[in-house]
Design a protein that fits this description.
The relative contact order is 0.13. The protein is built from 17 helices and 33 strands. It is an alpha/beta fold and about 775 residues long. The longest helix is centred in the first third of the chain and has 22 residues.
Length: about 775
Amino acid sequence: GRVVLDQPPSCRILCGIYLSSVLFSAGYAAHIGPLGRMSAAPRNNLPVGGDLSLRLRGGEAATSAEGSAAANSQTAGKLTRRALKKPEYMPWHQIPDNNWRTKDGCEVIKWDPYLEGCKGSLQYRYGRYKQRKEHIINTFGSLEKFSEGFHTYGVHHSKDPKRPGIIATEWAPGAKYLALMGDFNGWNRGQYPYQRDEYGVWHLYIPEKPDGTPLIPHGSRYKIAITTATGEETTRIPAWANYCVQAPKGAPTHPAYDAVFWDPPEEYAFENELPTTPKSLRIYEAHVGMSSEGEPNINTYDLFRERVLPRIKRLGYNAIQFMAIQEHPYYASFGYHVANFFAATSRCGDPDSLKRLIDAAHGMGISVLLDVVHSHAAKNVIDGINQFDGTPHQYFHEGPEGYHSLWDSRIFNYGADEVLRFLLSNLRWWLEEYKFDGFRFDGVTSILYKHHGIGRCFVNGYGEYFGLDTDMDACVYLMLANDMIHTVRPGAICIAEDVSGMPTLCRPVHEGGFGFDYRLAMAAPDMWIKLLKEMLDDQWQMGHIVHTLTNRRYKEKVVCYAESHDQALVGDKTIAFWLMDKEMYDGMSLLTPANAIVDRGIALHKMIRLVTMSLGGEGYLNFMGNEFGHPEWIDFPRIGNDWSYHHARRQWNLADQTHLRYIHLNNFDSAMQGLEEAFSFMHEGCHEYVSLKNEGDKMIVAEKGELLFVFNFHPTNSYQGYRIGTFWPGKYKIVLDSDWAEFGGHERNDRHNVFFSSNENWCGRPHYLEVYSPSRTVVVYARTRD
């Protein structure tokens, strides 16, 4: 194509500019309305030729419908829990195979012939899985019953009308004495002792008071008085405690945490049915505690539901991934040093307030995922499970094998029955008690290998995955976990955070895989940060970008992302900060022309995110606030910052201000989600072909789903009459352009243009279009049907 060198004009001030219509391929009009809010009717609810209203929105308060959905959840809380309809399996869900006993674990080889050389290892691994599952079935009845330990262990009200009172059960084989104490008995260590059975399980029954009232009232703080294996008399929080709070000043257990007996007179009743799992995931990664708007405090579940959840819905995400839900005494651990695995963190509210939040999300059709930490545990003793009975090996391996040197935490013994019961029941608990729709498993690399991935690059072939360094007990745990999850909750979503590239991770267990639905594409954010730190953008290699985004295992789904919470932490920078740095403080006002740094930063921020979404896999993830280029970093209160909350918050108001350029990035992110919702270009098996990676022109052209993406990464060169190959003949229109004014662009393309294909081979495609491709833009084309 012909090259035209240009320098983009200064960005115009946008206040209520009315934008014209464009055409979507289904034959209906997509109307771009005044800057302010964006609403899109689902494509499959529209008749052919119908209208789809697509309005740009910033981050202002919820619409009345959204507000009502959030508010209605406050009224939930009936005397009895309404039975929700169990989701049905859909064709794109993982469906457990009842014929698992007849399998040999080698079916995965059909997707990757190189696995033929590892056939023996696959058979051995699957054989170990079958052996363990048979043991569980023969000993405990079924895998499903085995994973219901929370009905037995912990402290509960008896459900037996013939034996009313308190039932308490705890596994502590090394302990010499256990007793229940708390507010209800003046913290008396000797009044209510447990009795030990032959398996090291301790039992206690306390009958109701003579007047029929419970001995332990709702909201009481309690602990276990214990004499450990070493003879120490101390206290522990029950390992299965489902609500824990820090003891108040003056309490005998301060400053440690106490368990709280959560037994409200009215059990929370979920109002909304569980959502259908989407074919393609658009995940909003969120941390409730640090989602507060400017206030120097920890946000609550209720305020997140009222203020942040409607924003996520308006942006168009169909899933939320909550971090830091499991109770963690050290706030600055970002939730990854878990002490109480069954307890939702009390910093943000009580259990019912978390249920209200999840219920409200379900009412909006949003799936909710838990960032679950089973890769390690906090080494806390008094308020954790480390050395619970006084031995170092109860839940964990003993010696160096049970300690993670980089994380300063304990490693589970995945081969022990009671540890398996604890972990599997923990997953089941979050699915059933709180109605989570799945999990993002943290630190899967650490689980898979005895070396935990420390100092390993995984570049030496399949031997690194199937050798003696692989922890077979841990592999079997992951297989059992995914097996159980997909059995008890059809359509549940399981995502693995693995940096090693373990083959078969995202294939069903009955094929010989681990059973995850998705893996995180962790190479993508590393690539973007490396490019931004070490190279000028005219040195970026288009082939390298495409290879990194598309280099994924066949038939194993991927959630890709340009950045997550990792890049936002203190010591690193977000993409927006790498691009614009201090100009994010001084150069984001629309009342003055954009300088070159800001203009470049906004342009590349949009391009990086859409090329990642379009080529990176079957799912997309964004960490809260990064969609609008949130400035600064995340830094939790700690000694080093004088316990300040100043950087442990989100400045949502930046995305709401129509005179700031943050709204442009927010608008574009919403448009990306709307585009995927309308055209579904990320689902498994959708059409994908990259026809051009031109290093000189800095161009990438890709077909994805029904769309044609044209990326021009050149800093100065715009191309008139540029030929782009396409598989589909016909008439095309622009459906998204990062250069539109509402996205902070310069309107260098006429959004009403119509393009007709020519029947001539170009770049290996049977047809081509001639388009104008402005510098530092992405333009998306779709065929029309009129």
